[in-house]
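PROTEIN–LIGAND DATA SHEET

This sheet pairs a single protein chain with one bound small molecule, adenosine-5'-triphosphate, given as SMILES. Inputs appear in the order they were entered. The predicted three-dimensional arrangement of chain and ligand is reported afterwards as a token string under its own label.
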Amino acid sequence: MAVLDRKFLQATWSLIREYWHSEEKWPARGLLAVIVTLNLTYVYILVLINKWFNRFYNALQNFDKEEVFSALGEFCLLAACYIIVAVYQLYLQQMLEIKWRRWMTHKYLNNWLTDRMFYRLQLTDSYTDNPDQRISEDLRLFTNYTLALSLGLLKAFVTLVSFIAILWQLSGILVIPLGSQQLVVSGYMVWVAIIYSVIGTWLAHKIGKPLARLNFDQQRYEADFRFSLVRLRENSESIAFYGGEAREERSFIARFGKVFNNYWQIMQRRKQLTWFASGYGQIAIIFPLVVAMPRYFAKEIQLGGLLQIAKAFDSVQESLSYFVSSYASIAEWKAVVDRLTGFISSMQQVSTLPQGNSVIEVGPEAALVVSDLSIDLPDGQRILSGLNLTIQAGESLLVAGPSGSGKSTLLRTLSGLWPYAQGRITIPAGHTFLFLPQRSYLPLGTLRDTLLYPGLNRPVADEEIIAAMSICKLEGLKSYLDKTEDWSHILSLGEQQRIAFVRVFIHQPDWLFMDEATSALDEATERQLYGLVQERLAGTTLVSVGHRNTLNSYHKKKLSLDGRGHWNLLVM
Ligand SMILES: Nc1ncnc2c1ncn2[C@@H]1O[C@H](COP(=O)(O)OP(=O)(O)OP(=O)(O)O)[C@@H](O)[C@H]1O
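PREDICTION REPORTED AS:
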């Protein structure tokens, strides 16, 4: 099967092997062993039921009442075992699946969040669409398909071996007269089943091959469509102000158009596959009876034998046709593996790029020393060239310059986020740093969680939080500390910026970097907050980015950037 090529199998194996060699390997392997045993038991019960058919129908044909009732008793026993095995087989398989998924999800989340991978992925060219979907959806599908398909394959194989033996015994010998010669075929029903299944598999492959690509695309289009809807929800107010509904609707319709068109192609393919698979399945019901009938009419076998042959043929044919019946699932599984492999290789590619913090080192001085620092854009354009700067602890610096001149990018570089920088930045050992972006991030959760974000390694009493809220003029919100809301939609931009100042007063960092952190506030509030920072965090070094002239008076030095690489440092 070209779909299951060597490269795909290698990629799948490298996805699979991690869990089975992890710290959870022994419980997982134990559980798998139980599931495999149940699968084998299941096939064994099927073999017993197949033999039972012979006994029961022969008893019926011979009007042997006693034997019929005894066979019915045997059937009850077999059915009870069958039910127990079927229930636990599925239950334990699902248990293994969710444990495997949990392990993979934790691992992928960790990889995505370590070394700011989530940020660096979107900075680089190595574009991975919807990483969130890789983690939430594809890992689920991967564990589900991998277990279902591999256990299905095992079951098909064991069924095949068991029933080929039975079918071979039951087939007897077929003698085909060829003129004056005779062709003697042993186990002819086995050969018929093999030919029937090989033709079926080949045809299913021909018809179903494009499904792998189509399923891959479908997942991506669905995710893009969903993501655009989420963006509307998140930016509802801006869109409503702009009156952008018509533009949004056009874009939704265009995205959904891709979902629709791709699904339409999937439908067509599935229709062809269903035409074929159901026709193939129907023929399989009658085909063995017809082929085995000559021996029945020749009175070589009884009715029970005929039915047993038909059932055995069914089992052999069904397991040989495993690829036909699971073609759609295999195609989807391949799409999932391709997406996960793409995601992993993007992460690997990004991890080989220089880290944003590769220019940063820790030094003994209580100062931040920038030596010969140059910053580029991802396309190689230089926006800052050869910056030399020393900020002593306790000093204050304002970074100014026209919009787009690279002020925020300088802050990103100082915080170790921006990978396109050369030179050296020495930061003081043991000092704490806090960076406030222009748009304060408000996580989902209670107001208390939001105010303490990203968390402290000491307990913070409510009194301390409320005191910080009061000086930032947010005491009106103190009754909402335990309320869970989407705060970024409720609070005004100015309130959100004041929340960032509450964080400053609670975290009390040694170094505070603020990127236009007061841009949404009136000048009086800005003055009050800067005054409070100078008064209450007297030892804190302040580095601000901003346009307003009012900021000049809170800083001792001013660094001006022009966005073409030049810079100028002024002591005020
Ligand atoms: N992830 C990115 N990929 C490509 N270019 C980027 C990226 N981030 C920023 N830039 C570009 O870098 C330049 C500097 O951006 P930056 O945000 O540092 O400017 P700024 O001086 O802070 O502007 P403003 O005052 O408007 O906030 C801009 O031209 C911007 O388009």
